[in-house]
Amino acid sequence: MAATISYTKDHEWVRIEGDTAIMGITAYAAEQLGDVVFVELPEAGKALKKGDAGAVVESVKAASDVYSPISGEVVEVNDALDASPQTVNEAPETDGWLMKLKLADAGEVDDLMDEAAYKEFVATL
Amino acid sequence: MNQQGRPTTAEPVDARRETFTGNRALQIEEPLLFEIGRHDVSGVDVDAPQTKGNRLGARRRTTPIDLPALSEPEAMRHYVRLSQKNYAIDMGIFPLGSCTMKYNPRLNEAVARLPGLSDIHPLQPPASVQGALELIHELGRWLIEITGMHSVAMSPKAGAHGELCGMMAIKAALAAAGETRTKVLVPESAHGTNPATAAALGFTVVHVAESGDGTVAADDVRAALAEHEGEVAAIMLTNPNTCGIFEPDVVAIADAVHEAGGYFYCDGANLNAIMGKAKPGDLGVDAMHINLHKTFSTPHGGGGPGAGPVVLSERLAPFAPLPLVARDGDLYHLIEHASENGGQSFGRMTAFHGQMGMFVRAYAWMLSHGADGMKQASEDAVLNANYIRAGLEDVMSVSYPAHRAMHEALFDDRFLKESGISTLDFAKAMIDEGFHPMTVYFPLVVHGAMLIEPTESESRASLDLFVATLRDLVFAVKDGKTERFTEAPRFTPRRRLDETRAARQPVLKWTRPEPYRDAAE
User: Fold this and answer.
1) Which residue, of B43, B278, B341, B508, has the fewest CB within 10 Å?
2) Complex ipTM value
3) CB contact B503 to A (< 8 Å)
4) Residue B304 has pLDDT above 80, yes or no
5) Average pLDDT of chain B?
6) Structural domain boundaries of chain A?
7) In this predicted structure, what is the pLDDT of residue B516?
8) Cis bond upstream, residue B156 (ω within 30)
9) Best residue in A31, A33, A35 to probe B by mutation, most B CBs within 10 Å?
10) Where exactly are the structural domains of chain B?
């Protein structure tokens, strides 16, 4: 069974696997940003609160903060993006993940949108 | 090809070989300086310096440094040819929104070249440069009068440097009062340098959303102040803002920030819209930088470093950076040490007292316009922006029609919807028409922004041609003539740049190309 993915209004996605949360930016966000040329990721061990700017995604158009959808400690970041930032454009919701967090409060996920709600939200933009 | 599928590769050399040289009449293929430079020529005839032995020891370089050498005519031709590929305010309208590319009058240049102003040194005794000091002082008095503020710091070197100066004064004032406030409110529509300045000084940026009509609502500011009670050091607000709108709530916002114990930093980049009409001091501003290269017509780049004087309220005046020019009877002197000035100055941002060449040009512009002329410059700048908006509003998408434009008109890409043409394509098509494009994708609060600022320099004929060209481009979009956009620019020496590859695989080092081989070989 595929794990459920939740979404934020700031166009981040988060997938929960056990007590780990994997997160990245949505296909809509990647499309809007245009070609990504650089991704700045946090150090492992950094504690992020929900809504904290955890990473920066820089495209030919703009540099954007990526806000953490949930609270937790960074356990792993996607180092492969250093050499190939274009993965964020090519596979934003799979290989283009940004970081893994150790969940601090599993309940926070309930405040996020599910796929249907996010699709509806994007349609209004 | 980049992600948008636009052609970016240069035409193959063969395709350009319609002529023997590869040139097309006045469009000259100019190689890099390194490619035309040699080692056996020199533009100057100077004897080798007499050195007393080798004082560098083992660190002395033994290999040639491989810099290109050219004779004087070769160097001159190289740069003139490059300059002919460029666009300039002296060639036509430069409609970059938010940049205020107004014409730089030649009178300014003539005055700036007077020997008494150009051939002086900042370390000369003040008694020998009384006229120059008087000019700095007088220019400062005019800036104080125009802005209705208490005092001025002339030394900052550019707009963003001025922002840093103003925010450092605010930080110093808070420290002097024993307060530690860590947050700065920055509206979404701010110049990008505003949050950068706040962050550079260690503040945390709190964003204030745009209220839906392109302005900042006092209620949103009050809510942010309440949420971060006792923590807000300042708000950094641009007025008129980057949507080209005068903030209707500006006084209420200033009052709210002051009541909460914070300061009001105003980004003065758009002073050119309100000069002679409204005084920032009356709006509750505590600190504001003034871009002399925008409002007061000094050159943007090229003409040397900029100047970003900062006007301050009475509360912040004691913290101004040194040196300051002061008047004592008929004599002018420099205040160089905090002890001469109350002891609260936050220090020194620059070695000397400011960018003299820019001061002279700005002062020449002020004197040649007079108070009435400067007021008319503001009125004409606003009139021209609204003339462009009125000429395009039925075919392009005005982002915030509820407010009259001030000095610039903001459009977004709704009129391009379903056409497959992006804002960038539209801007590139303007290049083929011989125009410098407007500012695109800024401000970030609207989608696919196009920000047009004509300034007061443009005649009605110039504005009419600009409007007619944009209307023709819009009709080409409607008629499906997409190649005018997706292929653009078509008539430039090089086609569209591959910004993505340039950013992902930057080539930062020049390597000597393979020797040229004649096709007959």
Assistant:
1) B508
2) 0.70
3) yes
4) no
5) 92
6) 5-123
7) 54
8) no
9) A35
10) 107-366, 371-504
| Distance (Å, whole) CA B171 – CA B128 | 36
| Residues B356-367: tens digit of each pLDDT | 999 999 999 999
Partners of A34 on chain B (C-beta within 8 Å) are 3-4
Q: What residues 12-41 of chain A have any CB closer than 8 A to a CB of chain B?
A: 34-35, 37-38
Tell me if A61 and B441 make a contact (CB, 8 A cut-off): yes
CATH architecture of residue range(s) B371-504:
Alpha-Beta Complex (3.90)
| pLDDT class of A1 with cuts at 50, 70, 90 | very low
Lowest mean pLDDT among A104-118, B143-157, B362-376: A104-118
Residue with tokens 């108070």: B371
A92 close to A29: Cβ distance less than 8 angstroms: yes
Q: Residue A61: its chain B contacts at CB < 8 A?
A: 441
B-chain residues near A86 (CB < 8 A): 504
Measured between CA atoms, how close is A120 to chain B, in angstroms? 19
Q: Hey, what are B353's tokens?
A: 């007292």
Which tens digits make up the pLDDT trace of A46-74? Answer: 999 998 889 999 998 888 899 999 999 99
Weakest mean pLDDT among B27-36, B266-275, B327-336, B337-346 = B27-36
Instruction: List the single residue in A34, A61, A85 with the smallest CB-CB distance to B504.
Output: A85
At residue B44, the 3 state secondary structure works out as coil
Residue in B closest to A81 by C-alpha: B504
pTM (global) more than 0.80: yes
**pLDDT above 50: residue A37:** yes
Q: DSSP for B46-93?
A: -PPP---S-SSGGGS--S-----B--HHHHHHHHHHHHHTS--TTTS-
pLDDT at B12: 54
Residue that wins the pLDDT comparison between B473 and A124:
B473
Please report the residues numbered 382 through 441 in chain B whose beta carbons come closer than 8 angstroms to any beta carbon of chain A: 441
Tell me the residues of chain A between 46 and 85 that have a Cβ less than 8 Å away from chain B.
Answer: 60-62, 85
Confidence of residue B11 (pLDDT cuts 50, 70, 90): low
d(CA B122, CA B129): 9
CB B169 within 8 Å of CB B349: no
Cα dihedral value B207, B210, B211, B213, nearest 10: 170
From chain B, pick out residues whose CB is under 8 angstroms from the CB of A89.
3
Q: Does B8 touch chain A (CB under 8 A)?
A: no
Whether A61 and A11 have beta carbons less than 8 Å apart is answered as: no
DSSP-assigned letter for residue B153: E
User: Can you tell me the mean pLDDT for B427-439?
Assistant: 97
Contact between B451 and B242 (Cβ < 8 Å):
yes
Q: From residue B190, how far is each of A59, B201, B273, B398, B414 by CA, in Å?
A: 20, 17, 17, 19, 22
Residue B9 is predicted with a pLDDT of 63
Domain boundaries B107-366, CATH class: alpha beta
Q: What pLDDT, on a 0 to 100 scale, did the predictor assign at position B144?
A: 98
The runs of H, that is alpha helices, within chain A are 27-33, 80-83, 87-90, 115-123
Angle, alpha carbons A83-A85-A88 (nearest 5°):
145
Amino acid of residue B480? G
Inspect the interface and report whether the beta carbons of B504 and A34 lie closer than 8 Å.
no
- For domain A5-123, say whether CATH 2.40.50.100 is its number: yes
Q: Which residues, 6+ apart, have CB-to-CB distance to A89 below 8 Å?
A: A30, A35, A36, A96, B3
